[in-house]
Amino acid sequence: MAEVAESSKPMFAGLSDVSISGDIPVEGEINVPVGTPSQDNEYSTLDEPVKDTILRDLKAVGKKFVHVMYPKKSSALLRDWDLWGPLLLCVTLALMLQGGSVDSKDDGGPQFAEVFVIIWFGSVIITLNSKLLGGTISFFQSLCVLGYCIMPLTVAMVVCRLVLLGGSGTVSFIVRLIVVTASFSWSTFASTAFLADSQPPNRKALVVYPVFLFYFVIGWMILTFSPSA
Question: What is the pTM assigned to this prediction?
Fold first, then answer.
């Protein structure tokens, strides 16, 4: 009978006698890490003056222009991408291509739209081609690189406009040909220097070829430009 009475006790009945002594310290902390206000506001630019924001963005655009003029293996142009520089270069190039003899009847309107379509649509096609070939660069990073690398061709357009002020003879054409060829080569070299590492080794040629055609078309537009009489 004693065995039956003992088996009828609850399984965990003995645990009620167990107590935790007050002398035993409870180790560990349960704290939710909360950042200090200074840390949270360190990266916030919502409260800064508009002047500081504009100056910071212009400084960043200027640094990217330097990277294009002196291309080297750097991730700055890819990491801190933006489209302000490409937009500025596209507008500048389109404005300088206005007033040519080809579009003198309609005040150069189609020429402006043509430059925009070639630059932006061409950049999108090259970016999609890069992604389909297994490139690791993002869509907007590629647009940023291709847009910023138009800078040498934009400089070539400024030089060609100045050369055309002295006439459009054979000497003028040779000078413009040399300037445009050098700028085209520099744009192609600079863009491939930034984009090459993001492509598979056995497919780099398939990525460089569309870039070559892209800048060649822009260079051809600059070379064949002649001001309206």
Answer: 0.69
- The phi and psi torsions of 194 (rounded to 5 degrees) equal -85, -30
The upper half-sphere exposure of residue 59, i.e. CA atoms within 13 Å in the direction of its Cβ, equals 6
pLDDT in tens, 182-193: 999 999 988 887
Distance CA 6, CA 24 (A): 33
DSSP 8-state assignment for residue 227: B
Lowest mean pLDDT among 122-136, 173-187, 188-202, 203-217: 188-202
Q: Is the pLDDT of residue 225 over 50?
A: yes
d(CA 221, CA 54): 33
Tokens of 102: 């080809």
CA–CA distance, 94 with 24 (Å, rounded to integer): 79
Nearest to 199 by CA among 119, 145, 118, 122: 145
CA-CA distance, 15 to 167, in Å (whole number)? 105
Residue holding tokens 């043509």?
114
Q: What is the dihedral of CA 39, 44, 50, 51, to 10 degrees?
A: 50
Answer positive or negative: Cα dihedral of 181, 126, 225, 190: negative
Tokens 């497919």 correspond to 203
DSSP 81-137: --SHHHHHHHHHHHHHTTTBSTTTTTTTHHHHHHHHIIIIIHHHHHHHHHHHTT--S
